[in-house]
Specification:
Blueprint (H helix, E strand, L loop, with lengths): L18 H9 L21 E6 L4 H8 L1 H7 L4 E6 L3 H9 L5 E4 L2 H9 L4 E6 L7 E6 L14 E4 L4 H12 L8 E4 L2 H9 L5 E5 L2 H6 L4 E6 L9 E5 H6 L1 H12 L1 H7 L1 H12 L3 H9 L10 H16 L17
Parallel strand pairs: 1-2, 6-7, 6-8
Antiparallel strand pairs: 3-10, 4-10, 5-8, 5-9
Helix pairs in contact: 3-10, 4-5, 12-13
Length: 333
């Protein structure tokens, strides 16, 4: 399995790693087109352990903090194990390799994953739109005043992420193409460092790093995703797990749909917990949470159409080798 030179080391802290846990740890730090697929699935496991991937910010880490899922599934004999990933693309690689059973990402990663592994994952749910939760930052005193001014400029983003799709839409809106900019593929931490030192002209990024970037004295928000991208979060599962455990999948989405009241009632604790996990200030987390949608539901025709539009745009820009049909990986609940 190849290691991406753009990914920083990342370690999952876990003890007595069994075979599946070891693969999860490996996938959390690597990203490449080649997968080593274990010859088993969770549905075949006798101990009924649900493996969930999450990031340091988003719906699933809030679910993890709440304990609601463990409570809801315990009566059916399920244990829940959580594995942290650096970003959505790496998480979906883990999903495709059966290292985890459930994942959450933005809009673009599932499309790239479907292109690479068309039979291994399915959409099981989505959040409401959150267009204020991603955007493009520019140097406050720089030359970029409009989207059209991005032409010829160095623009940093995490390739394959939700902001990759945002950037494509922004460029199209300004009658530009990816060939008109100098694309720089950087993780959030590396991109922030490059932005603060003036090595890049613009930075496409998501919350809570967007909120943190907006607080920088040298930054200005050029555009958020309003009128460009819905910026939804998507819940995904391995196809095998969803087909063999439909009641559990429905229960997961049902629990997530009730997460919003818990987050509201426990906001102070949640803010401090997420601030500690991300290393960001509490005020930054509060801003990001105010823009995060916790309205979770099963997939519907409107959301499927939005994802198809995204897939078509990625194909038109040759970012995936051929067009694909999102409906082929929608779980029929």
């Amino acid at each position: 399995m190849s290691r991406s030179p753009n990914l920083p080391p990342h370690t999952l802290f876990t003890s007595k790693l069994r075979r599946r846990s070891f693969l999860t740890a490996a996938l959390a730090v690597t990203a490449g087109p080649t997968l080593v697929v274990p010859q088993h699935s969770l549905a075949q496991s006798a101990d009924k352990t649900l493996h969930i991937g999450y990031q340091r910010y988003g719906t699933l880490i809030i679910l993890k903090q709440s304990g609601l899922l463990e409570h809801a599934l315990s009566s059916a004999g399920w244990n829940v194990k959580w594995s942290e990933f650096i970003a959505g693309p790496q998480m979906l690689q883990g999903l495709a390799a059966n290292a985890i059973d459930i994942a959450e990402t933005g809009d673009a990663p599932p499309i790239f994953a479907q292109s690479n592994w068309p039979d291994r994952l399915v959409y099981i749910g989505h959040s409401g739109p959150a267009p204020l939760g991603e955007g493009i930052l520019v140097q406050k005193d720089g030359q970029v005043k409009t989207l059209a001014d991005l032409k010829g400029k160095k623009v940093a983003f995490n390739k394959g992420s939700n902001v990759h799709y945002l950037l494509l839409n922004a460029l199209s809106h300004a009658a530009l193409t990816p060939a008109d900019i100098h694309a720089v593929n950087l993780t959030p931490a590396a991109a922030r460092a490059a932005f603060e030192t003036g090595q890049i002209d613009a930075w496409a990024i998501w919350d809570p790093y967007l909120a943190a970037g907006e607080a920088l004295p040298s930054a200005r928000l050029l555009a958020n995703a309003e009128n460009l991208s819905p910026n939804r979060q998507f819940l995904l599962s391995t196809r095998t797990f969803a087909e063999q455990n439909p009641d559990t999948v429905r229960r997961i989405i049902t629990v997530l749909s009730g997460l919003k009241p818990w987050a509201t009632q426990n906001q102070n604790t949640l803010v401090h917990t997420l601030a500690a996990s991300t290393g960001l200030e509490a005020g930054v987390i509060q801003t990001a949470l105010s823009r995060l949608s916790l309205d979770i539901d099963f997939m519907d025709t409107q959301t499927q159409a939005e994802q198809q539009k995204a897939a078509d745009l990625l194909a038109q820009n040759a970012l995936i080798p051929h067009s694909l049909q999102v409906q082929d990986v929608i779980w029929k609940s």
